[in-house]
Amino acid sequence: MSQTISIDALKQLVSEWIAQGKRAIGPTRIKDDLVLYAPLADAGALTLDGFVHPANSIKEFLFPRTEPIYTYQFKGQAIELGDSVPNAVEQIIVGARPCDAASVAILDHVFNWDFADAFYNARRQATTIVALGCATYDDQCFCTSVGLGPVAEKGADALLIPMDGGFEVRCMTPKGKALFAGKTQSSDKTAPTPAGPDAKFDLAEIRARLSGNYEDPAWREIVLRCLGCGACAYTCPTCHCFDIVDEGTAMGGARIKNWDSCQFGQFTMHASGHNPRATQGQRQRQRIQHKFRIYPEKFNEILCTGCGNCTRNCPVGLGVLNTLEQLRAFMVLEG
Ligand code: SF4
Ligand code: SF4
After folding, report:
1. Which residues, including other chains, have CB under 8 Å from residue 333's CB and lie 6 or more apart?
2. Could you give the 3-state DSSP secondary structure of residue 215?
3. What is the CB < 6 Å shell around ligand 1?
4. pLDDT tens digits, residue range 108-144?
5. Ligand 1 mean position to 29 CA, how many Å?
6. What is the pTM of this model?
């Protein structure tokens, strides 16, 4: 037995959320070759098939590209501070790929391990995530190499798995159950389990290489074509670095949190002018080391969900999978 919902009934439900003043977010076709996660003006904009992965990730709806954390104003010799209140309207992300939903479970740890980020947590508490299982995948997908898969439930409140005429609905959390209560039908059919991509690498082998070869000469070769543009990090669901800057006038302004990327040349620039990661090879090493060795040592999980966005969005076709494959090629060459 399973619970199911038709495509029409799902879109009707999305219309109800919007009519209730909730923010519905989902994959939307912007143009023929571009699908993005975006707020839905109406349920008709929700795109549920015909694409592999949106070009962005869902992190921007929990951790915006830019946001003020407080304002300040000079009043004579005094400074008046003003709190910025997070804009936490109730929102439902529907149609999130399982690799994106899984990234939220990772971000929960990052934004709460030593300091509870009030901005992230306010949005997180106001968010329900309905994942959409993947009927297809492309050459850049490698979820099955990092412990996930096309119907992984990690981070999702509910999961829709495509089947004839609609979806099987699996609700994992009270939020997911509340969202679909009375909206599904019992069925004696279950959705077929999609195969997902073949495993692309051996995690233990990669981690052993990263642990024992910090000054690996492979980095100089692998990253020769990297432009340092940061598109990989900005479209990655798990990259979470930010910078804090003051923007304003002599009379006042705001302290702003902006996305940042370890691929930018000035990311680690010291005030002295010294840059401990002066080359693009060192910066790529940092990204891979962080995702596959440093972060797992601290949090016991990989900082990558295998979504493939870093490769699809890279102007020179690099990205994590390609980098790991080249690292593996070096290992084979070296015997
Ligand atoms: S790997 Fe690609 S996307 Fe990332 S910084 Fe280099 S050129 Fe840009
Ligand atoms: S590193 Fe690449 S494959 Fe891994 S989660 Fe980020 S964008 Fe996706």
Report:
1. none
2. coil
3. 226-232, 263, 314-316, 318
4. 999 999 999 999 999 999 999 999 999 999 999 999 9
5. 25
6. 0.94
